[in-house]
Amino acid sequence: MRNKFADTFYELGKEDSRLCIVVADISPAGSIAKFREEFPGRFINTGVSEQIMIGMVAGMSQRKLRPFAYTIATFTLYRPFEMVRDDLCYQHLPVTIVGIGGGVTYSTLGATHHAQEDVAIACTLPNMSVIAPCDPAEVELATRWCATQEQGPVYLRLGKAGEPDFTKDAPEPWQFGKIRLIRPGDDVAIISYGTIMKQAFGVAERFKERGQSAAIYSMHTVKPFDRDGIAAILSRYEKVVVIEECAPNGSLSMQVQQLAWQIKAKASVDVFTLQDAFIHCYGSHDDILAAHGLSVPRISDALGLS
Amino acid sequence: MTITPDLSVAAPPRNSFDKAAAQERCRAYRRRILEISQQVSALHVAPAFSCTEITDFVYNTLMRPEADGSQDVFIMSKGHGCMIQYVILEERGILSRADLDAYCKPDGRLGAHPDYGVPGIQASTGSLGHGLGIATGQAHAEKLKGTDTRIFCVLSDGEFQEGSTWEAMMMAGNLGLDNLIGFMDNNDFSGLERMSEGHKAFYPLVAKAEAFGWEAVEVEGHDEEAMFEAIGRRKGGKPLLVICKTIKGKGVSYMEHIPIWHYRSPNSSEYQQALQEIEA
User: Fold this and answer.
1) Is B130 close to A87, i.e. CB distance below 8 A?
2) 3-class SS at A194?
3) What is the DSSP letter of B263?
4) How does B105-117 read in b/e, with b if 16+ C-beta sit within 10 Å?
5) Which site among A48, A52, A62, A87 would you substitute to test the B interface, given the most B Cβ atoms closer than 10 Å to its Cβ?
6) pTM greater than the 0.90 cutoff
């Protein structure tokens, strides 16, 4: 995801001289080195200073540039939270904040580097949109959208490098604000977003082994919440499963459950989130997800697929 | 006497300065601020009075109206001082009398802190330590675009207790933003106490600003002539911080140096006394 973001940003930046990137001492990798060389004034490293990273992109946006702020997810959002809220959201500026390593992607670095509440927190902010692509192809589409949108700040939540391509056979296109069917199925709907999409595919395989076909939906835009799209899924399927890499409070899962209750949906809704806890565990991304109860076997067990 | 503002980014003003005219404007601004304070239980008279001369100086001496398609920018980082900005914008016809009459009222659009999107207001401030970061981004943007637009930012000394302000100081210094000019309203009061008593390590100021890559000068902040001369001595090539020694509540004896007047609004007899003292 990180390289795809950098490559896309470089391509867009060649065409649009308003595009700038402000990083807080972290490399977006990929083609960004070329971007930095070719457009040194449009690549700013604030150093380990996240408040000025957000303050600057606000000011640059007010003077009609199109800046992106970029660093590790926890530091894009938590450290300069009031700048994000006041400078970007309150002033309603079309700035993109890119959080790399969203969720628990930085699995060996401990809870200080786990952005396990990032999506929920970003969703609470007025005017903020939240996009969490599930694979590099969605990163490219989202980045292109962010580079031209006029509606306000966006939190673009990325994983890191090496995510597989989940959407190459997707029957539906990526469209901001619309949930997207990426694998058809008839019996069950699995809704997910971001890097944990791999678990959604694993669970879909377990359904298949038991003769049930599971559709998979990418909820790449978590906010604005696609109420109509989710309502249609709740009406169409008897069983809906939400799998997400986010703390439970304020999660997509809560919103889906709330909507199901509001529309008196007949579908059963099972949700799987990170725990409301700091987990002292180091290992691979899958290891940390498993420690939160988000392994394919644990989810499958809970769904009665064992 | 007519003041012809300086049009260059780094060079000093070239024209003389009419002290009497500036003093008369500031008297009128203070009268109007007091008037507004009587219509609604307005906060923040004292912090507006401490930066009255600074704000008048920026608007009426340094800032250019539209020139060659560009326009200078004013950011009131110490958002609680915004009444002085409102009355100047009213005088210029950018805000209306009706706007100011509805200050802090439900049918109005002017609050006790400035809001982005209101005519003449460039940033939402009031939460301390935000303005200089935004101003730094604006100044860098104008450099990238190759304009000669200058960004003026008025900050309280209390805002320099915020780490975010020093992040901005460092970045503006790193980027050599000579189109950024900050004014510190150094009235020596934070909400609770005198800065010079409670925060001794805050001083000296000029050396700190210079160490962060700025040019800095200390002046008497109610003397616009002194500011005019200080700016005229600017070497250039760096962002400039003008550290203005001011008095919180300047011009009204019972407000000067009394912290509660950060929040209080004069009652009717206090209002009359304040008017008399301002005219004196």
Assistant:
1) yes
2) helix
3) T
4) eeeeebbebbbbe
5) A52
6) yes
Phi, psi of A113 (to 5 degrees): -110, 10
Cα distance from B56 to chain A (closest Cα, Å)? 23
Q: What is the rounded CA–CA span in Å between residue B87 and residue A66?
A: 33
Contact present, A222 and A251 (Cβ < 8 Å): no
Please give the single-letter amino acid code of residue B223: D
Answer for the pair A102, A119: CB distance below 8 angstroms, yes or no: yes
Residue B118 in tokens: 């209101």
Beta carbons of A51 and B135 less than 8 Å apart: no
CB atoms within 10 A of CB B33: 23
Question: Is the interface score ipTM higher than 0.90?
Answer: yes
pLDDT one-digit tens code per residue, A23-32: 999 988 889 9
Q: CB of A88 within 8 Å of any CB in chain B?
A: no
Q: Are A245 and A219 in contact (CB under 8 A)?
A: no
B130 neighbourhood in chain A, CB within 8 Å? 55, 82-83, 86-87
Would you say A234 and A240 are in contact if contact means Cβ atoms under 8 Å apart? yes
- In tens, the pLDDT along A45-100 reads 999 999 999 999 999 999 999 999 999 999 999 999 999 999 999 999 999 999 99
Contact A57 B170 (CB under 8 A): no
Residue B61, pLDDT > 70, answer yes
Question: Residue A6: is it exposed, middle or buried by C-beta count within 10 angstroms (0-12/13-18/19+)?
Answer: buried
CB contact under 8 A, B170 and A49: yes
